[in-house]
């Protein structure tokens, strides 16, 4: 017991020096806390695998292995065989606890096969070797490790015949007894493993065809495979896919190698620049350690230089560029072309229709190509019908794949994507706000077949998924000089942004569109974009900015003789005048516009304008007239089956009743608005209605009820702008003190 005690005492000393509890060390090594306690006290013998794992965790290379007690001769099923050869454990390893658990569970089953897959540089071999060291002692006939060279610089994948030859030699088969035929070699290999307990580690596999002849028939043997491909055809295997490291684990890895504090903001920023890819993190940390004159700020500065980023992730022996080139090397021409064109997509993720548009192939063909890229870990799949490029893969594909493609192919791909997204957004806009004016170009755009949805709910769902991509596409359109598509995108996004109150992207997209229209010299586009930008600014509460946009739009419409545009801007000005407090001028302008809409039969615009008149008349205390205008607006919206407009009209009518002191009627209208807004997922109008109900409760002295309703309003929409929403201004009159509701004096 003496030698075990010496080992245990040293383990306890190293553990305490590292500031680790037994529970923490147990979690990191996957040995139980009770077993580790027995090892420390000398009650249980340590193993080489335990020593190697603890040394790696405690940064104590060689200090524990030399204290291992002499091991008694182990009884083996075959006395003539002692295969060995696992690579040394890395001194720096973090995280991957779930992966280790999955691998261990897979290899505890009879005949268990586990495939660890992931993109190049994600740490597959590190994890497999670590797990193999951990499990090796459980295999009485040892462990065989073979690099299959699936992605090795300067060398092709090892042929099954070559690998079987090596395996048979490792199993002590004389050279002159190894058959020439690959099938005969496989049969002899399986025969030699019969009755034995061996852990077989096949690293860096190119594909399932390379691995399949190497699988033993002996159930006591286990197989651990690593590959940059998912190897789905090994359907009897357990598949463990490795993702990037978490922020915390990436920082821990960098700090351990570079010998710096893992908690600093600069370290977090550096590992984020490395994409949290273990290989990139390791190289960056090694470069910092190799340059004593550098500090973290210098490394960060170098990694921030987009032009030579890949050059910085190269320490002379390891290169991220080389690793990714090996992954791309095995792609077919169609997959490689798709990867390059996908790097043009400016958004975070995309569907098959976007991939099809970029590459100019049918959606079904695009799906097959994307699946192959996903199988090679060059695409991720954040949702069942969405794909994404890792930032590092995107940058590599842009610099190394896309750069080699003719310029006309790149431009054509981006235009196809813009056209497909624009056509789909135009359809969604028509469904989202039926009756809204769309110019000729928008009415005749033809979206891809899989995206020809038919209802408002589908349109809203599509917009919610794609709006960020559409915003980024508008930026790309401007950058690439696609000015017409740039302002068209803004036009078809306006309705969605109005419904969802996403003011910042709404304003940003329309400012870009205004610049694009000016570049084209298209005065009608410039006038319309100015008018829509004014609506966005006014809706957010920037009334001065909105008035300026409306003035510019009005001048342009008058210059080109567009009466409809001029009238619409006059109506918009009326809303601004109301919110600025000039209610009489607001009623005049809105009434002028209403007369025009009634003459031309534009019922929807008439209903919208009546709401504005009702609000201005309410401010002038003309309650009967205001109620009549709001009720007519409600009737017109319902006649046209415009549910969102009907909800707004109900809120408007409720406000008229509230200001007139008819709180019971106000509450009834607000409740109807809240119910209908909820069914339409119109969160902003629902919040307005709930706020109004809370105001009614507060005025009636029902403080607890009021606070509960206001809380529900905040949950529906995170804050209404008091400058634009009268209900929000009323709510500000009340304060909650010590649980009691009181009115501000």
Automatic annotation (TrEMBL):
Keyword annotations for this protein, in alphabetical order, are: Coiled coil
Q: Which SUPFAM superfamilies match?
A: lambda repressor-like DNA-binding domains (SSF47413), P-loop containing nucleoside triphosphate hydrolases (SSF52540), TPR-like (SSF48452)
- Give every HTH cro/C1-type domain span: 11-64
Looking up InterPro entries in the UniProt record yields: AAA+_ATPase, Cro/C1-type_HTH, Lambda_DNA-bd_dom_sf, P-loop_NTPase, TPR-like_helical_dom_sf, TPR_rpt
Please name the SMART domains in this protein's record. Answer: AAA, HTH_XRE, TPR
Which Pfam family, any one of them, does this sequence belong to? HTH_31
Q: Which residues form a coiled coil?
A: 620-650
Under PROSITE patterns, the record lists: HTH_CROC1 (PS50943)
Alphabetically, the GO molecular function entries are: ADP binding; DNA binding
Protein name (record): Tetratricopeptide (TPR) repeat protein/transcriptional regulator with XRE-family HTH domain
Query: What does the organism's lineage look like at the top?
Result: Bacteria, Bacillati, Actinomycetota, Actinomycetes, Pseudonocardiales
């Amino acid at each position: 017991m003496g030698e075990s005690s010496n080992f245990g005492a040293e383990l306890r000393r190293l553990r305490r020096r590292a500031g680790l509890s037994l529970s923490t060390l147990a979690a990191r090594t996957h040995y139980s806390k009770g077993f580790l306690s027995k090892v420390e006290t000398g009650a249980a013998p340590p193993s080489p695998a335990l020593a190697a794992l603890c040394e790696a965790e405690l940064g104590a290379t060689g200090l524990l292995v030399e204290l291992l007690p002499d091991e008694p001769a182990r009884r083996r099923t075959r006395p003539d065989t002692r295969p060995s050869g696992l690579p040394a454990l890395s001194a720096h390893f973090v995280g991957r606890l779930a992966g280790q658990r999955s691998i261990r569970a897979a290899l505890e089953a009879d005949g268990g096969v586990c495939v660890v897959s992931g993109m190049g540089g994600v740490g597959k071999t590190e994890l497999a070797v670590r797990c193999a060291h951990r499990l090796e002692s459980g295999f009485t006939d040892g462990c065989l490790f073979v690099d299959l060279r699936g992605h090795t610089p300067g060398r092709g994948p090892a042929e099954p015949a070559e690998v079987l030859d090596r395996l048979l030699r490792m199993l002590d088969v004389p050279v002159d007894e190894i058959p020439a035929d690959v099938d005969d070699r496989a049969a002899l290999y399986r025969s030699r493993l019969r009755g034995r307990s061996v852990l077989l580690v096949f690293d860096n596999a190119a594909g399932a065809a390379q691995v399949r002849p190497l699988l033993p028939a002996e159930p006591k043997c286990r197989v651990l495979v690593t590959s940059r491909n998912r190897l789905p055809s090994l359907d009897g295997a357990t598949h463990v896919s490795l993702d990037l490291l978490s922020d915390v684990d990436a920082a821990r890895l960098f700090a351990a190698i570079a010998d710096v504090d893992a908690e600093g903001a600069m370290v977090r920023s550096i590992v984020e620049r490395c994409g949290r890819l273990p290989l990139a993190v390791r190289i960056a940390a090694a470069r910092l350690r190799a340059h004593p004159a550098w500090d973290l700020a210098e490394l960060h500065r170098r990694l921030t230089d987009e032009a030579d980023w890949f050059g910085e992730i190269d320490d002379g022996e390891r290169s991220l560029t080389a690793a990714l080139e090996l992954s791309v090397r095995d792609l077919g021409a169609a997959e490689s072309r798709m990867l390059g064109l996908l790097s043009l997509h400016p958004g975070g993720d995309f569907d098959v229709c976007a991939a099809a548009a970029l590459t100019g192939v049918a959606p079904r063909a695009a799906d097959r190509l994307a699946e192959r890229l996903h199988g090679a870990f060059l695409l991720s799949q954040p949702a069942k019908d969405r794909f994404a490029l890792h930032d590092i893969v995107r940058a590599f594909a842009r610099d190394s794949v896309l750069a080699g493609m003719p310029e006309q192919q790149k431009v054509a791909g981006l235009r196809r994507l813009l056209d497909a997204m624009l056509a789909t957004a135009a359809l969604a806009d028509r469904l989202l706000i039926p009756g809204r004016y769309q110019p000729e170009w928008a009415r005749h755009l033809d979206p891809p077949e899989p995206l020809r949805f038919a209802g408002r709910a589908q349109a809203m769902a599509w917009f919610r998924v794609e709006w960020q991509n559409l915003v980024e596409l508008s930026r790309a359109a401007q950058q690439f000089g696609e000015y017409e598509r740039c302002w068209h995108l803004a036009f078809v996004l306006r309705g969605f942004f109005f419904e969802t109150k996403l003011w910042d992207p709404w304003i940003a997209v329309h400012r870009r569109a205004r610049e694009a229209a000016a570049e084209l010299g298209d005065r009608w586009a410039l006038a319309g974009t100015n008018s829509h930008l004014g609506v966005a600014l006014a809706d957010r509460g920037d009334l001065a900015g909105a008035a300026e946009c409306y003035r510019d739009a009005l001048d342009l419409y008058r210059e080109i003789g567009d009466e409809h545009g001029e009238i619409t801007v006059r109506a918009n000005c009326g809303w601004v005048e109301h919110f600025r407090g000039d209610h009489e001028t607001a009623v005049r302008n809105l009434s002028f516009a209403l007369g025009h809409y009634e003459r031309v039969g534009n019922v929807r615009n008439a209903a919208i304008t009546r709401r504005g008149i009702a609000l201005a008349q309410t401010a002038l205390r003309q309650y009967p007239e205001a109620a009549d205008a709001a009720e007519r607006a409600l009737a017109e919206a319902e006649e046209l089956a415009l549910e969102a407009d009907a909800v707004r009209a109900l809120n408007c009518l409720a406000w008229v009743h509230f200001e007139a002191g008819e709180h019971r009627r106000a509450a009834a209208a607000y409740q109807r608005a809240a119910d209908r807004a909820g069914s339409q997922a119109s969160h902003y109008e629902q919040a307005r209605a709930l706020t109004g109900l809370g105001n009614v409760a507060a005025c009636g002295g029902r403080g607890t009820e009021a606070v509960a309703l206001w809380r529900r309003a905040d949950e529906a929409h995170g804050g209404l702008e008091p400058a634009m929403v009268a209900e929000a201004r009323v709510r500000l009159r009340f304060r909650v003190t010590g649980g009691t509701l009181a009115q501000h004096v």
